[in-house]
Write a structure and sequence with these properties.
The complex is a heterodimer of chains A (369) and B (416). Chain A is an alpha+beta fold and 369 residues long. Chain A folds into three domains: 116 residues, DNA Polymerase III, Chain A, domain 2 (Roll), CATH 3.10.150.10; 124 residues, DNA Polymerase III, Chain A, domain 2 (Roll), CATH 3.10.150; 108 residues, Roll (DNA Polymerase III, Chain A, domain 2). Chain A is built from six helices and 26 strands. Chain A has a nine-stranded antiparallel sheet with strand order 14-11-12-13-26-25-24-18-22. In chain A, α1 runs antiparallel to α2 and α5 runs antiparallel to α6. Chain A is elongated, with a radius of gyration of 25 Å. Chain A starts with a strand and ends in a 5-residue tail after the last strand. By secondary structure, chain B is an alpha+beta fold. Chain B folds into three domains: 180 residues, 2-Layer Sandwich (Alpha-Beta Plaits), CATH 3.30.70.270; 56 residues, DNA polymerase, domain 1 (Orthogonal Bundle); 158 residues, DNA polymerase, Y-family, little finger domain (Dna Ligase, domain 1, 2-Layer Sandwich), CATH 3.30.1490.100. Classes of the chains: A alpha+beta (369), B alpha+beta (416). At the A-B interface, loops of A face β11 and β13 of B.
C-alpha cells in the first residue's frame, strides 16, 4: 500500500475512530486501526468487538500496487500525525510487514499486523431500516444520554433504549434514580414496534461524533446489532441483550402540584447552592410555596447555602429533597425558556419538562432529608 | 517538674492533655479480684485464646508484652495468671471514664481508643486553672469513676507532644511539656517514637539522614511533602512540637464497617468456613441496620498462610441483609477458593451510606427479609446477640468477641 495525503486529512478520521480503541488490550490487533485503500479512497476502521467505527478520507495513490489492507497501531499513528507540523504532506508506504510514514525529513517505521486478523461485527439480516436528519439523532442523544447508568450490576441500564412504536422514535435512559426520555414524531409509521438497548460506550461515541447538520442518517436494526450511517462514518454496535425496565410506569400521569419557572435562573440558583451540598450525596432541600421556591443545602462542615427563586406554583406547600446533579442535568437538557415541575409528595418523583415542549420528559426520584 | 509551673499565670495558647490508661484490661481484672493484685496477670480472648491482649505491670517486668503467645510468656514467668477478657465490662468502665472527663474537665474531647483520650483544655484555663492542675484533675477523676484505676497523663501544646509526654512516665505518671519547650524536648528523640510515624516513614527519613525529630525539622518541608503529601507536612510540624491536628469531636461517618474472626489454624473445611463467613455476614448486616446504613460493595477475605485471598464484590442494589452478604461469600468461595488452608475470615461493608437516602424508580419487590430483619433485630436486642439467627449459626464459633482498639463509647464504633 502506498499513498500521499496531508496531515489534516489523516488527523480528523483518526480522531473519529480512535475513540473506540481501548487503552488496554488482550487482543493485540484491537489496538490497531485497519486501513483499506481503494483507488483514491482510504477507509479507516477501529473496533473493541462491541463497537465498530468506520470512516474514510481522500488520498492520492502512488502508482501501481497502491490498493490493499493493513493495520497500524492506532494511537501511535495518531500521535505521530498530530506531532507533525501543520499542513505537512504525509506519505505512507507499506512493504513486507512494516509501514513507513514519511513527511519532510521525518521517517517513522511502524509495526503492522495482518489485515486478515482484524475482527468485524456481523451486520447481516437487518430487521428494519429508517432515516432521519443527523442533527435530530444527535439532539435526542444529547438530551438523554446523561441519565444512563455506569457499571451498574443491572447491565441493561448501562445503555440507551431506542424504541420505535407506531409513529414515534423514542430514546430512554435511566440509572434507577432518574430517567430521561425524548420522543420524535415521524411522518411515516413504523410497521413493526422495536426496542433495542445500545451500550453506553457506543452512545458516548455517537454523542461525540454526530454533527449538527441535516445530512441523511440511515439507521439499520438487526437482531443483535445497530448500524448508523452518516456521510462521514459507519457506526456499528452490538446490542445489550436484556429487558429494559418498564419506564412507562414510572413517568407520572397525574400530579396535584405544578410549578412553572424560568429555567436559567433556577439552574443558576441550584448551581450555586450545590457548592455547599454534601459532596458525596449532593442533597438539596426545595421548599415550594405560593410564588416562591426556597432552595437550601448544607454540608458536614455545617456550611449552608440558601436561594430563592420566583415560581408560579399551585398546590399546598411542599418540602422535598433531591440530588442536585440530577436536577441540573435535566434542566440543562430542556431548551425552553420556562420549565414545568410536576410534583405530588416528598416520597414521589418529580417530572420536569420544558414549557410547551412535549418531546422530552425527565423523572427524578427524591432523596430522604 | 518545677512547682512554679503550677502557679504560672501565663495562659498557654493551646493546651492538650493526653490520658492513657495503664494496662487497662489487666487493671480492671485486678480491681475486681483482689487475689490478682500484685501478681503477673495476662488477659486473653477467652480461656481458649493463646495471644496476650494485655498484661499487668507485674507481668511486664518479666518481659511479657501485648501480642506475645501465652506459651512463650509462661516460659518467662511460670506464675503468670491467665484471665479471659470481659469486653463488656471494659466497655462499661471506659464509657464511664470518658463521660466523666467530658462532663467535668473539657467538652472538647476526642476518644482516641478504648483506653486513651485527648482533651483540648485551651478554653478551660480560666475555669479550672493551669494545664498541670487540669492534668491532676484528670488523674483524680479517672481514679474516682473507675474504682481506683491509674492512668498516665501527658500535657503539652499539641496532640503528638502530649501523647509523647504521657509515655515518658508509666505507670501512673504525669508529664508536662510546655509548648515553648516542646521543640527542644523532642529534638533528640527518634522520629519513629512519635505516634503515627511508622517504620516505613522512618526508613525513608533515615535515607535522608534524618533520625531524630531535630533532624527532620531541619529538612526542607518539601522533601516530606513530595513523598507523603499532607501527612509529610504534618510530620514535619509534629517534629517541632507543632502538630496542627485538631481534637476530633465527633466520629466521622464510617469509611467501612467490618468483622473478622480467627478460624482454627489451616482450616480447609468448606462448610466450617461458610459458617464463619455467615457469622460475620450477619454481624456486619446487624451493625449496618443498627446505624441505619446500607452498602453495595463488600470485601470478602480469607487469610491464608502468608497472604489474603480476597475480593470486592457488589450486590445489585445497596443492602443491609445478612443473607444478601452471605450470598456474595458463597459466590466468592465457589470461584476464588481452591482448598487453600485458611487462618482468618473477614467480611467488610465498604463505603456504607445512610439507608434509603436516594429513593429509586424501579422498586425492587420489597424483599421479605426486610420485615424479618426488623423482628430479628428486636428479639436480639431484648434477649442478646444471635438469640435468633439463621440455623447454620448454631454451629458458629464459641470464641468470644474481641473489643477493637478503635472502640468508641457511642456511634458506629460501639460494637463488640
Amino acid at each position: 500500500m502506498k499513498f500521499i495525503t496531508t496531515r489534516e486529512d489523516l488527523i480528523k478520521p483518526l480522531q473519529m475512530v480512535c475513540g473506540v480503541v481501548e487503552r488496554r488490550q488482550t487482543l493485540p490487533v484491537l489496538s490497531h486501526v485497519l486501513l483499506s485503500l481503494q483507488e483514491e479512497n482510504l477507509t479507516l476502521t477501529a473496533t473493541d468487538l462491541e463497537v465498530q467505527m468506520k470512516t474514510h478520507t481522500p488520498v492520492r495513490g502512488m502508482g501501481d500496487g497502491g490498493a490493499g489492507d493493513i493495520t497500524l497501531p492506532a494511537r501511535k499513528f495518531l500521535d505521530i500525525c498530530r506531532a507533525l507540523p501543520e499542513g505537512a504532506e504525509v506519505q505512507l508506504i507499506c512493504e513486507g510487514g512494516r509501514a513507513q510514514i514519511r513527511s519532510g525529513k521525518s521517517r517513522f517505521t511502524l509495526a503492522t499486523l495482518p489485515a486478515g486478523e482484524f475482527p468485524s461485527i456481523e451486520t447481516r439480516e437487518s430487521i428494519l431500516e429508517f432515516s432521519l436528519a443527523q442533527k435530530d439523532l444527535r439532539q435526542a442523544i444529547e438530551r438523554t444520554h446523561f441519565a444512563m447508568a455506569q457499571d451498574d450490576v443491572r447491565y441493561y441500564l448501562n445503555g440507551l433504549l431506542l424504541e420505535l412504536a407506531e409513529r414515534v422514535l423514542r430514546l430512554v435512559a435511566t440509572d434507577g434514580h432518574r430517567l430521561a426520555l425524548c420522543e420524535q414524531v415521524r411522518e411515516e409509521e413504523f410497521y413493526e414496534n422495536q426496542q433495542v438497548i445500545i451500550p453506553r460506550k457506543g452512545v458516548l461515541e455517537l454523542h461525540r461524533l454526530l454533527e449538527d447538520n441535516d445530512a441523511e442518517t440511515r439507521v439499520t436494526l438487526g437482531s443483535n446489532f445497530i448500524l448508523i450511517c452518516t456521510p462521514e462514518m459507519n457506526f456499528t454496535s452490538k446490542l445489550i441483550d436484556g429487558r429494559f425496565p418498564d419506564y412507562q410506569n414510572v413517568v407520572p400521569m397525574s400530579t396535584d402540584k405544578t410549578a412553572v419557572c424560568e429555567r436559567e435562573p433556577l439552574r443558576q440558583a441550584l448551581g450555586r447552592v450545590s457548592i455547599l451540598s454534601n459532596e458525596k450525596y449532593r442533597g438539596v432541600r426545595m421548599a415550594f410555596s405560593q410564588g416562591v421556591l426556597q432552595i437550601s443545602a448544607h454540608n458536614p462542615e455545617h456550611e449552608e447555602a440558601e436561594e430563592e427563586v420566583a415560581i408560579d406554583y399551585t398546590g399546598s406547600p411542599l418540602e422535598i429533597g433531591f440530588n442536585v446533579n440530577y436536577l441540573l442535568d435535566a434542566l440543562a437538557a430542556c431548551d425552553t425558556e420556562q420549565v414545568q415541575l410536576l410534583l405530588s409528595d416528598p416520597n414521589s418523583c418529580c417530572l420536569i419538562r420544558g414549557m410547551n415542549d412535549p418531546s422530552c420528559r425527565y423523572v427524578v426520584m427524591p432523596m430522604r432529608l | 517538674m518545677s512547682p512554679a509551673l503550677d502557679r504560672c499565670p501565663r495562659l498557654w495558647p493551646r493546651a492538650i492533655i493526653h490520658m492513657d490508661m495503664n494496662a487497662f484490661f489487666a487493671a480492671v481484672e485486678q480491681r475486681d479480684d483482689p487475689d490478682l493484685r500484685g501478681r503477673p496477670v495476662a488477659v486473653t480472648n477467652g480461656l481458649q485464646g493463646t495471644c496476650i491482649i494485655t498484661c499487668s505491670y507485674e507481668a511486664r517486668t518479666f518481659g511479657i508484652h501485648t501480642g506475645m503467645r501465652l506459651t512463650a510468656a509462661r516460659r518467662l514467668c511460670p506464675a503468670l495468671v491467665q484471665r479471659p477478657a470481659r469486653p463488656r465490662v471494659y466497655a462499661r468502665v471506659s464509657a464511664a471514664i470518658m463521660t466523666a472527663l467530658r462532663d467535668r474537665v473539657s467538652p472538647d474531647m476526642e476518644v482516641f481508643s478504648v483506653d486513651e483520650a485527648f482533651l483540648d483544655v485551651t478554653r478551660c484555663q480560666r475555669l479550672h486553672g493551669t494545664p498541670l492542675r487540669m492534668a491532676r484533675m484528670v488523674k483524680a477523676i479517672v481514679r474516682e469513676v473507675s474504682g481506683g484505676l491509674s492512668c498516665s497523663v501527658g500535657v503539652s501544646g499539641d496532640k503528638t507532644t502530649a501523647k509523647f509526654a504521657a509515655k515518658l512516665e508509666k505507670p501512673d505518671g504525669l508529664t508536662v511539656i510546655p509548648p515553648w519547650e516542646a521543640r527542644e524536648r523532642l529534638r533528640d528523640i527518634p522520629v519513629t517514637a512519635l505516634c503515627g510515624v511508622a517504620e516505613g516513614i522512618g526508613r525513608y527519613l533515615a535515607r535522608h539522614g534524618a533520625r531524630t525529630c531535630g533532624d527532620v525539622a531541619a529538612l526542607p518541608v518539601s522533601v516530606l511533602a513530595r513523598r507523603f503529601g499532607n501527612l509529610g507536612r504534618r510530620i514535619w510540624l509534629m517534629c517541632q512540637g507543632r502538630d496542627p491536628d485538631r481534637i476530633h469531636l465527633d466520629t466521622p461517618p464510617p469509611k467501612s464497617l467490618g468483622h473478622g474472626k480467627v478460624v482454627p489454624p489451616a482450616t480447609r473445611d468448606r462448610a466450617l468456613l461458610l459458617t464463619y463467613l455467615q457469622h460475620m455476614s450477619e454481624k456486619v448486616a446487624t451493625r449496618l441496620r443498627r446505624h441505619e446504613l446500607e452498602a453495595q460493595v463488600f470485601f470478602i477475605g480469607l487469610r491464608g498462610e502468608s497472604a489474603w485471598l480476597g475480593e470486592r464484590l457488589q450486590t445489585a442494589v445497596p443492602v443491609c441483609d445478612g443473607g444478601a452478604i452471605f450470598a456474595l461469600c458463597r459466590d466468592f468461595m465457589d470461584r476464588a477458593w481452591h482448598n487453600e488452608p485458611v487462618f482468618q475470615v473477614q467480611v467488610t461493608a465498604l463505603a456504607p451510606r445512610p439507608r434509603r437516602l436516594q429513593l429509586t424508580l424501579f422498586e425492587e419487590t420489597a424483599s421479605p427479609s426486610d420485615a424479618l430483619n426488623v423482628v430479628m433485630d428486636e428479639i436480639n436486642r431484648c434477649y442478646g446477640e444471635f438469640t435468633i439467627a439463621p440455623a447454620r449459626l448454631l454451629q458458629r464459633s464459641t470464641m468470644p468477641d474481641v473489643i477493637a482498639p478503635a472502640w468508641k463509647p457511642a456511634g458506629h464504633r460501639q460494637s463488640l
